[in-house]
């Protein structure tokens, strides 16, 4: 095992042996969800870095090997990949034709307690919580700001655990967890985030050359609070629209800001998803970033997955530029995930999306965000999961090219950071929350917030927006970024008898309703023990 400890902010590789852990894999699929079996002889710097690295990598070595959890290969078990799979393949945005176990069940919303990827997502989150608990309990007195950051990371992982699985195992120490209901988890998250807010560093936008670029600050706390409050009615039965708007507005008024100016042939929106998004003005929009640098964060489950799974060898994001034969700038083209017809129709409501390249599609849509490739492809998804990659438009949103035409650090692994939170989310949160307080229509300031996003995309601005419009705008702005499932649930468009259908929803070509119990995933069967009980409907 590698004995060197390296900083996340330069390397993101940490040795488990130097963290004082008993093995290279925690085995969260086979043991109590929050692992008590850790000794306390740790290196504070190494463990602090590992708390962040859990989001960026699956393990401690090149290509996620060795992996931190058992049961899935490292390339599958990473946080970004699992967040994306669970929140995109289950919705009106993405469908995949791979035969990997669990893909079909995601695409058709037939997942259950044996679903391997949900098991991996659960294990990834609980493993990260274990790292954070160990740091807080053993190293919490070393540095107040770092401890606040680790508390934020723990809250972040608990948030995703609650959002996905509802009633979850909970512990703030290295011990056997108890069961927290969603309402209890919500209350703890709110209290914890409000408590650490003043302890975090000030909200200040950065580029990758600035110290602390990958570290969370007050704005990250505000973003998580605004997301928590925006979904409060789902989690507790009681809406908190004003609080959601208030914290979103704090981000909007902070040092972070929308990227509004493109560079050369690259639009301001496209720059958010490119290999130098940490170095250009795009970095100022990323409120909390998961670092990828092509050398030390060499993960198959990070932004490489977002690129390789959405391209084949015929999609070229920079065909007219420095790399005329390149695809996404990585050399990896797996051709699996493609757009559901319903996503493309958000930009072409008349069904007239042309069969043009991803370089031409934004102009055809009159919206810079429509980064689809339709060459030799059908809008229709054919036989759904069973169809080829050509049955559906390709999504070329993510690439590893750079605005200055320089090359990446690696021919395979990208430099493209993943913006888990970006300022645009605050704009839409503010617009939606204030519209819900205004009878379902945007206020003047809410309208302006959405129009700022549409103006950035060179899309036509409107005089006002309904809640239906806002739901669609969430998709146009954030498709393929891991936000869609919670958004549909919040709008009452996911499980239940809502008759909001998309192609192959529930496995039917024209879509069909499925039970509302699927608004929460099943607790992995191996974790249903002791105080932990299975969710209803599974």
Radius of gyration based on Cα positions: 22 Å
Number of helices: 17
Instruction: Give start-end ranges of low-pLDDT stretches.
Output: 1-40
Helix proportion: 25-40%
> Main β-sheet: number of strands, strand sense, barrel status?
2 strands, antiparallel
Distance between the termini: 40 Å
Named at the architecture level, the CATH assignment of the domain at 292-416 is Orthogonal Bundle
Mean of all residue-level pLDDT scores: 91
Beta strand %: under 5%
According to CATH, what is the topology of the domain at 292-416?
TPR-like
Topology as a string of helices (H) and strands (E) = HHHEHHHEEHHHHEHEHHEEEHHHH
- The tally of beta strands, per DSSP, is 8
Assign the structural class, choosing from mainly alpha, mainly beta, alpha/beta, alpha+beta, or little secondary structure.
Answer: mainly alpha
Strand order of the largest sheet: 1-5
User: Looking at the structure, what is the overall shape?
Assistant: globular
- Please give the CATH class of the domain at 292-416: Mainly Alpha
């Amino acid at each position: 095992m590698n004995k060197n400890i390296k900083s996340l902010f330069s390397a993101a590789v940490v040795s488990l042996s130097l963290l004082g852990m008993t093995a290279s894999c925690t085995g969260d699929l086979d043991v109590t969800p929050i692992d008590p079996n850790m000794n306390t002889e740790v290196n504070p710097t190494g463990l602090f870095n590992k708390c962040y690295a859990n989001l960026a990598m699956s393990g401690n070595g090149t290509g996620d090997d060795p992996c931190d959890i058992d049961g899935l290969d490292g390339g599958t078990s990473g946080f970004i990949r699992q967040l994306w799979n669970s929140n995109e393949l289950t919705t009106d945005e993405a469908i995949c034709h791979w035969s990997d176990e669990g893909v079909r069940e995601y695409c058709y919303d037939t997942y259950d307690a044996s679903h391997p990827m949900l098991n991996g997502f659960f294990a990834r989150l609980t493993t990260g919580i274990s790292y954070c608990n160990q740091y807080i309990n053993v190293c919490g007195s070393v540095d107040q700001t770092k401890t606040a950051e680790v508390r934020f990371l723990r809250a972040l992982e608990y948030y995703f655990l609650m959002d996905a699985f509802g009633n979850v195992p909970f512990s703030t120490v290295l011990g056997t967890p108890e069961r927290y209901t969603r309402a209890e988890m919500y209350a703890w998250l709110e209290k914890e985030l409000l408590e650490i807010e003043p302890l975090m560093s000030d909200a200040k936008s950065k580029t990758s050359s600035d110290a602390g670029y990958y570290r969370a600050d007050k704005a990250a706390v505000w973003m998580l609070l605004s997301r928590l409050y925006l979904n409060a009615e789902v989690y507790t039965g009681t809406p908190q629209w004003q609080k959601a708007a208030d914290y979103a507005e704090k981000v909007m008024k902070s040092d972070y800001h929308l990227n509004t100016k493109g560079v050369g042939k690259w639009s301001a929106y496209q720059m958010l998803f490119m290999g130098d998004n940490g170095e250009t003005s795009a970095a100022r929009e990323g409120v909390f970033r998961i670092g990828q640098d092509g050398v030390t964060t060499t993960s198959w489950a990070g932004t490489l997955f977002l690129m390789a799974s959405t391209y084949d060898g015929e999609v070229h994001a920079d065909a007219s530029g420095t790399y005329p034969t390149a695809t996404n700038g990585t050399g990896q083209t797996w051709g699996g995930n493609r757009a559901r017809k319903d996503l493309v129709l958000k930009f072409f409501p008349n069904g007239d999306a042309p069969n043009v390249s991803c370089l031409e599609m934004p102009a055809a849509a009159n919206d810079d965000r429509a980064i689809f490739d339709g060459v030799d492809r059908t809008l229709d998804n054919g036989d759904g999961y069973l169809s080829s990659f050509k049955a559906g438009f390709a999504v070329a949103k993510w690439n590893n090219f750079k605005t200055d035409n320089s090359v990446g650090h690696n021919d395979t692994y990208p430099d493209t950071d993943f913006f888990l939170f970006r300022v645009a989310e605050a704009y839409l949160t503010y617009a939606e929350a204030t519209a819900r307080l205004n009878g379902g229509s945007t206020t003047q300031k809410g309208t302006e917030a959405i129009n700022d996003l549409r103006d950035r995309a060179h899309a036509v601005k409107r005089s006002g927006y309904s809640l239906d419009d806002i739901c669609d705008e969430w998709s146009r702005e954030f498709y393929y970024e891991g936000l869609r499932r919670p958004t549909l649930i919040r709008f009452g468009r996911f499980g239940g008898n809502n008759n909001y259908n998309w192609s192959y929803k529930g496995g039917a070509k024209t879509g069909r309703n499925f039970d509302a119990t699927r608004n929460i995933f099943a607790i992995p069967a191996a974790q249903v023990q002791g105080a932990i009980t299975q969710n209803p409907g599974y």
